[in-house]
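The instructor's notes for this session suggest beginning with a concrete chain rather than abstract definitions. Hand out the sequence below and ask the class to guess, before any prediction is shown, which regions might be ordered.
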Amino acid sequence: QVQLVESGGGSVQPGGSLRLSCAASGSIFSTKAMGWYRQAPGKQRELVASLTSEGRTNYADSIKGRFTISRDTAKNTVWLQMNSLKPEDTAVYYCNALVVTTSLNEFNLWGQGTQVTVSS
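After discussion, reveal the predicted structure:
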């Protein structure tokens, strides 16, 4: 069984910072793209940032210059450093990863979600 476990959400004032972590565990041979999505109340889930195993990044326009995605490929872990947070960043953040298991099956996994609230 493979799964993603997230941590690092919470409440912060506008202008503050948070760092989200996501680790893939189980019988993993490799991880391909890893990334973060978010879903605010009443809105669709949207891509925040992604990072391929080759190091290519993709950021949503709304967070460029404020958020940074990074990963440790050997540890199947991805982080999202969020700076200069705004109230509109409030959402449930979900980790996503495309993993290949040791039996060479490919799975698109989602984490359980972690709440990020930006409010004064």
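Then share the key points. The first strand starts at residue 3 and ends at 7. The mean pLDDT is 96.
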